[in-house]
Design goal:
Blueprint: H1 2-23, H2 33-38, H3 55-62, H4 83-94, E1 124-131, E2 135-145, E3 148-157, E4 160-171, E5 174-182, E6 185-195, E7 198-207, E8 212-221
Antiparallel strand pairs: 1-2, 1-8, 2-3, 3-4, 4-5, 5-6, 6-7, 7-8
């Protein structure tokens, strides 16, 4: 009796081994032991409670749902029929009104620049009388470039004469001339007013020895 029980147990164990061997995927040797033994098994997916069982049912449930918020933003005006009109209305209400200050015509003063005086043309030959305690005559040849005047001449005193170099400026009707002689060294500074071909004014003279004197100068343009 005991021998029969052992034989029956051996037969059952052999049957189980045979069934297990048939369920193993022997064609894929990359599986480990557990994967090879469980490769033939299949799991049944159970859908969670409350969720659609199929994708089609899920699409039907979401068909009439929307996550978009169509509420008009507070930054747009409710009076506009479109977003563009609402933005324009909002911008017009936010922009401060500015107005240009009106000009008071009574306080506006017209300013005029003074007319530029035309510089006299002093270029040519001049004859001057230098009158102080002694009367001297001066014959000068003047050249002019805009307001710059230069030239040369001679000053005669009684029976003696001396050469002079001339430099100066002309502005409007004013003519300033420096006459310098070299032997003896004397400087004559003439401050004249020109009226067409006539000139008159004062002069101050100084010598190398320290003497100085003043006088009256009158001249005429001869050519």
């Amino acid at each position: 009796m005991r021998f029969n029980a052992l034989m029956l147990s051996s037969f059952i164990f052999s049957s189980l081994l045979a069934m297990t061997a048939l369920g193993v995927d022997w064609t894929n040797p990359s599986f480990d032991v557990d994967e090879m033994f469980h490769s033939g098994e299949s799991e049944e997916y159970v859908n969670p409670v409350g969720h659609p069982a199929t994708p089609q049912e899920a699409r039907e449930l979401q068909k009439n749902k929307s996550a978009l918020n169509w509420t008009m933003p507070s930054t747009l005006s409710a009076g506009g029929e479109s977003a563009k009109e609402s933005r324009e209305q909002a911008q017009s209400t936010n922009e401060p009104e500015t107005s240009a200050p009106a000009e008071d015509a009574s306080t506006t003063e017209a300013t005029t620049s003074p007319a530029t005086l035309e510089t006299a043309n002093v270029q040519g030959t001049w004859f001057f009388t230098l009158n102080d305690s002694v009367v001297r005559d001066a014959a000068l040849t003047l050249l002019q470039v805009n307001g710059d005047v230069y030239g040369s001449g001679r000053i005669r005193e009684e029976n003696a004469s001396m050469d002079v170099a001339v430099s100066g400026t002309a502005a409007g009707s004013d003519l300033n001339l420096d006459l310098v002689s070299t032997n003896p060294i004397i400087q004559y500074k003439l401050n004249l007013t020109v009226d067409q071909d006539l000139a008159s004014g004062e002069y101050q003279a100084s010598s190398a020895s320290g003497e100085s004197w003043t006088g009256i100068a009158e001249g005429q343009k001869t050519s």
